[in-house]
Write a structure and sequence with these properties.
- It is a single chain.
- With 196 residues, the chain is mainly α.
- Helix content is 76%, strand content 0%.
- It has helices at residues 22-63, 70-77, 82-91, 95-126, 132-153, 160-180, 183-195.
- α1 (22-63) packs antiparallel against α4 (95-126) and α4 packs antiparallel against α5.
- It starts with 21 loop residues before the first helix and ends with a helix.
- The relative contact order is 0.18.
C-alpha cells in the first residue's frame, strides 16, 4: 500500500488560487491615472508660482477685462484694447495686485486638487486586493475629485496643462466609479472573503 506524499487540507476540499479579474486591474490603473492627473495639476500650479499666475491673469484680463477691474481703466483711457489697460496697470504697479489675487486663486485650486486626489491614490493602492471598503472609498473620492477636475477643465484662461489634467481627471474618475462596482470585482471580493 502506498500513501500520497501530500494530504488534502483538513477541510477536505483543495483550495485553488483566486484569479484577479481584469476589471480589477483596470480599476487600479484608471483610478491611479485619475488621482495622478489631479496631483500633476496641483504640482504644476505650486511650481509655476507667480509666472503662471501672471500668464493666467493676463489671459483672464484679455478674455474678460471686467473680471479683474480693467474695464474701468479702459473707459478712463478711452481704449477697447485690454492689453493697453494691462500695460498701464503694470506701469503704475497695480498689476502686482491682480497677479497676487490670481496666484491666490491658483493656490486654492491646487489645494482643492490635492485634498481629493491624494486619498484617491491611497485607496487605489489598497484596491488591488479588491476589498469592498477600498472600492467604497474610491467611489467617494472619485466623485469628490470631479469638483477639482471640473474647476481645472473648464477654467477659461487657465494653463493648458491644468485644463488637460482636468479633462483627464473627469473622464477617468467617472470610469473608475463604474469599474468599482462591476460584477467581476464584486465576485472576486466575495470569494476572497470566503477564502480567508
Amino acid at each position: 500500500m502506498t500513501y500520497s506524499e501530500t494530504a488534502p487540507p483538513a477541510g477536505g476540499a483543495v483550495q485553488t488560487a483566486l484569479k484577479k479579474p481584469a476589471t480589477l486591474l483596470a480599476l487600479v490603473v484608471i483610478s491611479g491615472i485619475s488621482a495622478l492627473s489631479g496631483l500633476i495639476g496641483a504640482i504644476y500650479l505650486f511650481a509655476g508660482g507667480r509666472d503662471v499666475a501672471d500668464s493666467y491673469a493676463t489671459a483672464t484680463a484679455i478674455a474678460n477685462p471686467s473680471v479683474v477691474g480693467l474695464d474701468e481703466i479702459m473707459e478712463t483711457i478711452g481704449t477697447e484694447n485690454p492689453q493697453e489697460a494691462i500695460d498701464l496697470a503694470k506701469s503704475v504697479d497695480q498689476w502686482d495686485t491682480v497677479v497676487s489675487i490670481a496666484h491666490a486663486g491658483l493656490i486654492f485650486k491646487a489645494f482643492l486638487l490635492i485634498i481629493f486626489a491624494a486619498p484617491l491614490l491611497l485607496f487605489t493602492l489598497f484596491a488591488i486586493k479588491g476589498s469592498t471598503w477600498s472600492r467604497v472609498l474610491i467611489t467617494i473620492f472619485a466623485i469628490l475629485s470631479l469638483i477639482g477636475s471640473l474647476v481645472s477643465a473648464f477654467d477659461t484662461g487657465g494653463p493648458a496643462l491644468l485644463n488637460a489634467m482636468g479633462y483627464i481627471g473627469l473622464a477617468t474618475a467617472v470610469i473608475a466609479v463604474v469599474l468599482c462596482w462591476l460584477p467581476a470585482n464584486n465576485r472576486y471580493a466575495k470569494a476572497r472573503k470566503l477564502a480567508v
